[in-house]
Give the backbone structure.
Amino acid sequence: MNRFLRLVARDLRLALRQGSDATIAVMFFVLCVVLFPFGVGPEPNILARIAAGVIWVAALLASLLSLERLFQTDYEDGSLELLSLSSLPLEAAVLAKTLAHWLVTGVPLIVAAPLLAVLLNMDAQGFGVLVLTLTLGTPILSLIGSIGAALTLGARRGGVLLSLLILPLYIPVLIFGAGAIDAAINSLTPRPHLLLLAGILAAALPLAPWAGAAALRQAVE
Amino acid sequence: MPVFSGSELTCLRGDRLVFTGLEFRIAPGGALVLLGPNGSGKSSLLRVMAGLLKPLRGTLGWDGVSIAEDPDGHRARVQYVGHLDAVKPVLTAAENLAFWAALAGAADPAANARTALDRLGVPHIAGVPGRYLSAGQKRRLNLARLLAAPATLWLLDEPTVALDRAAIALFEGLIAEHRAEGGMVVLSTHTDIATPGGEELHLDDFTPYADDEEGGGEDLEEEGAGP
C-alpha cells in the first residue's frame, strides 16, 4: 500500500511540476463546451436541451487528450522496465498511475462542469446529478483509457489509434451519464442510470488494471 | 548457499535466434562478464535473467528452484541497470533515487538516496533536477540505485558507458564490495572492468550456425574470436 501511494505521489508531483496536462484537459473541456452556443445559436431552450450531452461528450474528449502520455514517458525513459521489475505488482502500478491521471485530469473536469452547465442554461435540477455522474464516470474513462494507452504503447501515431480504440468503449458511459441528467431534469429518478454507472465502475476497477498490466508486459519485452 | 544458474537457454528476437543452448552458473560472491560483439545477445541475456524477457526454451534457477515458479521472489532480489537511465527531468537527483528506494521497500528512502549519491562521489547533484544532469551524472545516479535499493543480484548492461576513469575505478570498488558481501554480479561490457576472479561468458559461442547466412551473422562470428 505504501509503495502504491509512493507511485501515486510521484506521478502527481511530476504532473504538478510539468503543469501542462491538467490545465490542457480542463481548458479543452471549457473551450469545447463554449463553442456550442456559437455553433447552434444562442437559443436558451435548445442549449438547455442539449447541455447534458454536450458536457458529457466534451468530458470524454478532454479525458482522452492526455491519456496517450499515461505510460509513454515511463516507457521511453526506461522507468516502465524498472516498475515491472519492482516488488509492486504491475497491476497495482497501473492502478496507481490511473488514479494519478484521474486526480490530475478528471477532478478538474468535475469542478468545472457546474459552471459550464450554467453557461448552457441547464435546468438547476440537473446540477447535483451532473456532478454525481461525472464523479462516477470520469474514473471509468481513465480506467478504460489506461487499457488503450498500454496497448498503443510504442505504436507510431499512438494517440490517433488510442482514440479509435477507446471512444467506442466510452459509449455506455456516455449513455448512462447523459441519461441520468436528462432523467433528473424531467423529474424522473436518475437512480437506475447511476446504479449502472456505478456497476461499470465496479467492473472496470479490477479488470482495467489487469488488462493494462498484461499489455504493458508485452510492451517491455 | 544460493546459486543462480541457467540451462539450455534459447532466445528469439523477432525471427532471429540470438543464442541457443546457453549455460551459466554463478555462486555467491561470483561475477559473470558477458563478452561478445554487437548483436550477440548480451542485452537479451541480461533481460532474460531479469525476467523482462521470456526465453524461448530453457530455465533459470535460483538455488534449484525455477524462477518461472517464483517470479515475485526473483524480482525482489534483482536490481537491473539497463541502457535507459529512467531519470525524470523534473525531479531532482535525490527525488529520483528516493522513489526507487521507496519502491524497493527502504525504511528511509531519502537517507538511502543521500548515502548512495555520496558513495558514488556526486553528493552535489542531489538537488539538481534531472534535466540539468550530464550523461555521466545520469549514469552515476542510475548506478546509485544499486546502493539505495540493495539487491543480491546485480544485472548491469554496459554500466560504464559515459563514465570517466575515476568513476569506473570507484564502481569497480563497489562491485568488489558487493561480491565480498556475498552478492552476485552479471555485467556486459566493451571496456575493461576489473572483476578479479570473475568468469567470462563468450556469447558468440552460443550463436546458432543455421542463421549465419542471413543478416550479419557471419561477420559477427569472425570479429569475436572465441575464448
In short: The mean pLDDT of chain A is 92. The interface with chain B takes residues 2-3, 6-7, 10, 13-14, 17-18, 73, 76-79, 81-88, 220-221 of chain A (CB under 8 Å). Residues 90-119 of chain A form the longest helix (30 residues). The two ends of chain A are 27 Å apart (CA to CA).
